[in-house]
Amino acid sequence: LLGTDVSPIFRSQVSSGSTASYSFAVFGDWGSVDSGGHNADQSRLMSQIAASGARFVVTTGDTAYSSGTQKNYGDLVQVGKDTSTIFGPSFWKVAGASIPLFNTQGNHGMRSEALTNWPQDRAVSASGGRYEMDTYCCHNGTSSRSYPSEWYAFNAGPARFYVLEASWSNSNVGSADLYKNDYDSHWTTSSAEYQWLANDLATHPTAVTFAFLHFPMYADNSTEGSDTWLSGSNHLEGLLADNGVDIVFSGHSHIYQRNRPSSSGMPVSYVTGGGGAPLQPVSKCSALDQYAIGWSYGSSTHGSACGAATRPTTIDRVFHFLLVTVNGTQVTVRPTDELGRTFDVQTYDFAGSPGALQLTYDVNRDATCRAKAPPGSHRSWC
């Protein structure tokens, strides 16, 4: 089966509590091909991830367009429209030959194939999470349907990783929208996922904590924008902040965006939806948006930007992944485009107990900024 390929070599997971530095990759909204089965941008991005030194990958959802069927996932042989968008020979085969992947559920692919293709038995069992098909009924006039319930946690070195489900099916919205249906199904205080997360956060304090979910709390895109049912002190954002979560990674908007904390004590948040599906523009610039880039296929200017970003002039500047390096309590987030160019590189230091956080960031490596959090706060920015 290997043919001329070398034998795959995987490294075991970084042990919990290890002081060794390591890197992991984050990307989302990927697995899309044209009518001939091609996506050169996604192919180049997979090659960059394969060469990045990442020990593992965590996605931000929407894996395998357009609906997450096994035809969309495909194989090494079959090609064509919506075929082999993930397992095609120039896609995940390239990076997946040596890098394991933790998948986050998105609104495209609310099917059992997501659970089958990315089994997580050990992480789910160890964290008491859930990884199964469940019946959801019937908020806001939605129909009773079987959808994945996909949430779990794992440790690597000093960090704990929370893979969360914040998604809902496009085809079953009833009288509400995706965001409200997701909230009513997953994020009320009585929901199974919310209660599991609250308990796990309270019983697993770690030096560094990450969360991964599909719907973004803050995103400057007009069609797939901020989810106000997740953001704020009384919603998921507040739960994460109260329990020391440091960075939240999400997708859904097919852009790159880095946000300042929404208020004192809230986590830093990123939107990374440039994994290979058609891109979207940055449609507005909010006060929280510190750096964002997007792309419009129909616009004469194409590229769009907010904050400290420069408007991209070519599409290969916008397809991207994040390489995140954990070195003790210091975390560096290195966005990397499909040609290997880095941008908006940020380094954070989550040293000490709440109230002792220091944050260092480097905007395009031209200017540095250091700040120490005031008493009673555990987040700071410049």
Give the topology.
Elements: E1 22-27, H1 40-50, E2 57-59, H2 70-73, H3 92-96, E3 101-102, H4 113-117, H5 121-127, E4 130-136, E5 145-156, E6 159-163, H6 178-187, H7 192-203, E7 208-212, H8 236-242, E8 247-250, E9 256-259, E10 268-272, E11 289-295, E12 303-307, E13 320-327, E14 330-337, E15 346-349, E16 358-363, E17 367-372
Parallel strand pairs: 1-2, 2-3, 6-7, 7-8, 8-10
Antiparallel strand pairs: 1-13, 4-5, 5-6, 9-10, 9-11, 11-12, 13-14, 14-15, 15-16, 16-17
Description:
16% of the residues lie in helices and 25% in strands. The chain has 382 residues and is of the alpha/beta class. It has a 9-stranded mixed β-sheet. Strands 3-2-1-13-14-15-16-17 form an 8-stranded mixed β-sheet, covered by helices on one side. Residues 353-382 have low confidence and may be disordered.
Mean pLDDT equals 92
**Oligomeric state of this protein:** single chain
Helix run count: 8
- SSE sequence, one letter per element: EHEHHEHHEEEHHEHEEEEEEEEEE
Strand order of the largest sheet: 4-5-6-7-8-10-9-11-12
Q: Over all CA atoms, what is the radius of gyration?
A: 19 Å
Uncertain stretches of 5 or more adjacent residues: 353-382
User: Shape, please?
Assistant: globular
Query: Helix share of residues?
Result: 10-25%
* Main sheet summary: 9 strands, mixed
Please report the total strand number as a whole number. Answer: 17
First and last CA, distance: 53 Å
Q: Strand portion, in percent? A: 25-35%
Structural class: alpha/beta
